[in-house]
Amino acid sequence: MKHTGGCHCGRVRFEVMAPANLEVDQCNCSICSKSGYLHLIVPSSRFTLLRGEDELICYTFNTGAARHYFCRHCGIKSYYVPRSNPDGFSVNARCLDIGSVASMSIKPFDGQNWEENAHSLAHLSQP
After folding, report:
1. Is-contact 105 91, C-beta < 8 A?
2. Per-residue pLDDT for the chain (127 aa), expressed as one digit of tens each?
3. Nearest residue to 19 (alpha-carbon basis) of 102, 124, 106, 120
4. How far apart (Å, rounded) are the C-alpha atoms in residues 35 and 102?
5. Domains of the chain
6. b/e for 90-108, b at 16 or more Cβ within 10 A?
7. SS3 8
8. Do the beta carbons of residue 66 and residue 60 sit within 8 Å?
9. Rounded CA gap, 49 and 26, in Å?
10. Residue 35 gets which letter from DSSP?
11. What separation, in Å, do the N-terminal and C-terminal C-alpha atoms of the chain show?
12. What angle do CA 29, 10, 90 make, to 5 degrees?
């Protein structure tokens, strides 16, 4: 089903195709734990940026492979391209609009030991 969402100020909007009953990952790495990010990783074919591309600032760190996109106005990262799934997108499930999610199951992911665990996410961006 189609879910919509975006940043806090509404300048960045997207849609993502995903089940009504979501399984998301809660990562304990430094950036995810500090921002409270809940990962809904999907193939790129299931994500569409509706508006706001020119409102985004990209942040990279460490290897520079992950591209974290923040709204330049409100500072919210509603989605990004993860290092674990460069062929997909990770949507912050907390940024989905109210009404389309029937349930959300949150699984812990050990991102503090990313190198040892990243392989367990690779299948999520496959069509």
Report:
1. no
2. 999 999 999 999 999 999 999 999 999 999 999 999 999 999 999 999 999 999 999 999 888 889 999 999 999 999 999 999 999 999 999 999 999 999 999 999 999 998 899 999 999 998 8
3. 102
4. 24
5. 2-125 (2.170.150.70)
6. bbbbebbeeebbeeeeeee
7. coil
8. yes
9. 23
10. H
11. 15
12. 30
Phi, psi of 72 (to 5 degrees): -70, -10
The distance of Cα 114 from the centroid of its chain, to the nearest Å, equals 16
Q: Tokens 């029937």 — which residue?
A: 102
- Radius of gyration, CA atoms only, the chain: 14
Residues 6+ apart with CB under 8 A from 41: 25, 82, 84, 85, 88, 89, 90, 91, 121, 124, 125
Residue 53 in contact with residue 69, Cβ under 8 Å?
Answer: no
Q: What angle do CA 124, 70, 13 make, to 5 degrees?
A: 70
